[in-house]
Amino acid sequence: MATKTADLISMVESLPVDMKTALVERLLDSLHPSQKEIDALWAKEAEKRVEEIRTGKVKTIPGDEVFRELRKKYSK
To answer: By three-state DSSP, how is residue 37 classified?
Structure first.
């Protein structure tokens, strides 16, 4: 089995980058199959949030301010 694995790895290493990328994506999908409906809902939510930031409906808080407040709150 180890020889077959080594042969497979050797073959994959010789592939062009675009084919390696496609292979990695397929392998990751096989480990964690995507749930298209959930993915679509998250994409829609992300677009909504970006639009809320763009239009000023939501105010962003700088990261350093957030971390400062967290340190202040949890360092007690």
So the answer is: helix
Q: Rounded CA gap, 23 and 16, in Å? A: 11
Q: Compute CA distances 38 → 6, 48, 66, 67, whole Å.
A: 37, 15, 29, 30
Instruction: Please tell me the pTM assigned to this model.
Output: 0.47
CA 51 centroid distance within chain: 20
Query: pLDDT by residue (tens digit) across 45-55?
Result: 999 999 999 99
Residue where the block lists tokens 């202040």: 72
Both tokens of 31, joined, read 């480990």
Cα gap 14→46, rounded to integer Å: 37
Other C-beta atoms lying within 10 Å of the C-beta of residue 27:
10
